[in-house]
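Work Package 3 (structural annotation) set out to generate three-dimensional models for the target panel prioritized at the project kickoff. During this period the team completed the workflow that converts sequence records into discrete structure tokens, so that structures can be stored uniformly alongside our sequence database. As a representative example, we reproduce one entry of 79 residues exactly as it appears in the project archive.
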Amino acid sequence: MIILISFHFFFQAGGSMSFFVLLTELVGTRHRSMMGTSLWYCWTLSLIALAGVAYLIRDWRTLCIVTGAPAIAIVFGWL
């Protein structure tokens, strides 16, 4: 289990960095710094929202289902 967690955190950093690079290259050079900063603001706000949802839903299994359910719709919409 520890090996899987280590792989997750190792590859998560690469995924977030490539997302940052792709996002900043889609906008012009004038707005590049604002978009890069906005990306991290959205990340911080999502973590705050997750803490609020976790406060309201005390059972961790239910919390996983509630927070993971929107990903199912995204995956089916992508396929």
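The longest helix spans residues 2-26.
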